[in-house]
Amino acid sequence: MSGWPNLDRADDERLARSLAVSDPGALIQVMDRYAARLYDYCHALLRDHEQAAGALHDALIAAYAHVSVLREPDRFRGWLYALVRNECMRRLRAPDRPAERREAPEVEDGFLDEVELSRRQEARRLVHGALSGLRGRERESLDLMLRHGLDADEVGGVLGLDAHEASNLTGEAHARLDDALAAAYIARAGRDDCPEAAAIADDGGWPLPPPVVRRLVHHIDTCRICGPRRDRAAVSAARLLQVLPVAMMPTDLRGLVMATATDPALAPDLAAIAHGAEPFDAWGWPAMVDQEDGKPAAERGGPRGLWAALAAAAAVIVVVAGAFYVMHGSGGKSAAQGPTGGTSGSVADPSSPSDSEEPSDSPTPTESESPTPTPTTTT
């Protein structure tokens, strides 16, 4: 995403090796490079700013504690996302998860004028309509690939798929998104030129239901009017997904992470969080949390008063934590860590975290066929 730091795999490996010797400076660099995008991913799964902050905090502490078990440090990026996803899964299945969810504000872009804001809103409506036709696993894989910059192998590691399964999933999801974008575009912009397309689109409402999308795609493929229009309107899905909101990370999260990692008084909390992230497989990847029967976060042994203790400790350590990202209501100024502005409803209300047959338009987490991520073997 525009506004997030560029990622370099050589730097990732260097960071992983530095983190493996418990270098606090490496943890600060990891947060500089990854915290904003990981928070956005957490928020997309949990749809609550406090839950997302807690999940990211614990995932970063788990990474700090366990990175030495990762056998392929060059896969550090996907490994981080796998840790984050597990923390989100635990919270999604926690029996005491709050019923009310409060979403984070959106990272604002102060350089957009009214015309550009209007165009962005229209583009978002187009993307929302297209995403509504995809299933949870498809949406999540595209979010990881097109917005977060993971490749197919890394997506497979996060979702617990082998290389072949991950390639098939991302390829099919990308093709379905392209079809859905074309259908949404024709439904909104091409109806005046083609009565048949207008009649099909009028059958469904907005966003277009999957059966209507399929009918429109079939029509476009055979229509002399709509076919050329689709080709002219073809836009990179990755580029279009950049218009989606980016959740703003809380201003104090970096300080809280540094406090847990470095304050001796919080060593029991660090140990509890690290234990909660276990077990890890032979490659050093976290065993995926079962979404139906997985142990909830409340039962992992972490102290319920952790956040209050961290806040007090962070007051001392915050000076060395670097520049903060800002959350609405936390009293700081905005740091532009993403390309968008407004409120952060990344796509829509969350749906069930299972990979159901019924599609919806949020990048919800999905249950994997295999129990753990499967890194590529080295020779």
Automatic annotation (TrEMBL):
One of its GO terms (biological process) is DNA-templated transcription initiation. The keyword Transcription regulation applies. Pfam families: Sigma70_r2. One of its GO terms (molecular function) is sigma factor activity. Residues 331-379 are annotated as: Disordered. Residues 32-94 form the RNA polymerase sigma-70 region domain. Residues 361-379 have a biased composition (Low complexity). Keywords: DNA-binding, Membrane, Sigma factor, Transcription, Transcription regulation, Transmembrane, Transmembrane helix. InterPro entries: RNA_pol_sigma-70-like (IPR039425), RNA_pol_sigma-70_dom (IPR014284), RNA_pol_sigma70_r2 (IPR007627), RNA_pol_sigma_r2 (IPR013325), RNA_pol_sigma_r3/r4-like (IPR013324). It comes from the Bacteria. The chain crosses the membrane at residues 305-327. Belongs to the sigma-70 factor family. ECF subfamily. This is Sigma-70 family RNA polymerase sigma factor. It comes from Actinomadura darangshiensis. The lineage of its organism: Bacteria, Bacillati, Actinomycetota, Actinomycetes, Streptosporangiales.
